[in-house]
Design goal:
The complex is a heterodimer of chains A (135) and B (139). Chain A has a single domain, classed as 2-Layer Sandwich (Transcription Regulator spoIIAA). Chain A has five helices and five strands. Chain A has helices spanning 23-39, 57-72, 84-93, 106-121, 124-134, and strands at 6-9, 12-16, 44-48, 76-80, 101-103. In chain A, 30% of the residues are buried. In chain A, strands 1-2-3-4-5 form a five-stranded mixed β-sheet, with helices on both faces. Chain A is of the alpha/beta class and 135 residues long. The longest helix of chain A is centred in the N-terminal third of the chain and has 17 residues, at 23-39. Chain B has 139 residues and is an alpha+beta fold. Chain B has one domain: Heat Shock Protein 90, CATH 3.30.565. Helices cover 36% and strands 30% of the residues of chain B. Chain B starts with 7 loop residues before the first strand and ends with a strand. Classes of the chains: A alpha/beta (135), B alpha+beta (139). At the A-B interface, helix 2 and helix 3 of A face helix 1, helix 2 and helix 4 of B.
Chain lengths: 135, 139
């Protein structure tokens, strides 16, 4: 079965969704990623969806679940590279992705993750302040 | 009659069985390809493809499999793409409820029918017996 590769760069796990995003691949990704977060004590996950042609409600739910699961495992999740047509379509469809951080490029996303991880290690109050700023 | 109507016989672009997830993925790309060939904008291609994915998923999950028919429909002054999803499943007992936002059969986000209705220009649902959903997007 096809699986989406998960790359490790420092504290961060990098996932690029390139294949046709099968439902079962999506579910496998959620499981693989959760395990890798714990195994590597990863502090951040960067998910690149720039190659995705569309996001429907099922995929939206999986992406939301990945982010929520990561959060429970003390890990931040940033979604990067969403195409404008997809942003418009999922908004019209009615998908909201509450609590999901996004960045336009992988570079911006990486910077956001680094900042989030840094502020967290600097103490809880500052992390809260930072988080308020990003929201 | 405020506008003249001339309806040319629809041009059949494709027909596909919808039984497995692979069928769903194949159908999505076929729909996108036909929409692109007809000259729909990139945004509308994405909207049509997303609506097709939602409705195709319903056919597979709730209708126990069925089919989709893709057509190019033409009227006097406009062209459109029409997708007709059909299944022989249990059907939808309360269509009005099923069309409301947030109505869910648990697996998705409860946006399948209502969301695809928003993404397309026309939406028609006939059920039961079985379920037929016909959606159209005009160029």
């Amino acid at each position: 079965m096809d699986r989406i590769p998960i790359l490790k760069i420092g504290d961060v796990l990098l996932v690029t969704i390139q294949v046709d995003f099968h439902d079962r691949i999506a579910i496998a990704l959620l499981e693989d990623l959760s395990e890798k977060i714990v195994d590597n004590s990863a502090k951040g996950v960067l998910i690149d969806i720039s190659a995705l042609e569309m996001v429907d409600s099922f995929m939206g739910r999986i992406l939301g679940n990945i982010s929520k699961t990561a959060k429970l495992l003390d890990c931040h999740c940033v979604l990067v590279g969403m195409q404008p047509a997809i942003a418009i379509t999922i908004t019209e469809l009615g998908i909201t992705l509450p609590g999901i951080y996004t960045a336009l490029t992988a570079e911006d996303g990486m910077k956001l993750l680094t900042d989030m991880v840094k502020s967290k290690t600097n103490g809880k109050t500052s992390a809260k302040k930072q988080e308020a700023k990003w929201r | 009659m405020d506008r003249e109507k001339l309806i040319v016989t629809p041009l059949m672009l494709g027909f596909q069985e919808l039984k497995t997830e692979d069928d769903l993925i194949e159908m999505r790309s076929a729909v996108k390809r036909h929409a692109a060939d007809m000259g729909f904008s990139a945004l509308n291609q994405t909207k049509i493809m997303t609506a097709a994915s939602e409705l195709g998923r319903n056919v597979i999950e709730h209708g126990h499999g069925g089919s989709v028919q893709i057509e190019h429909i033409r009227e006097l002054d406009r062209d459109g793409i029409r997708l007709t999803f059909t299944d022989d499943g249990p059907g939808i007992a309360d269509a009005r409820l099923a069309l409301s936002d947030g109505y869910t059969s648990k697996k998705g986000m409860g946006l399948g029918l209502s969301g695809s209705k928003r993404l397309m220009d026309e939406f028609e649902l006939i059920s039961p017996p079985g379920t037929t959903v016909m959606v159209t997007k005009w160029m």
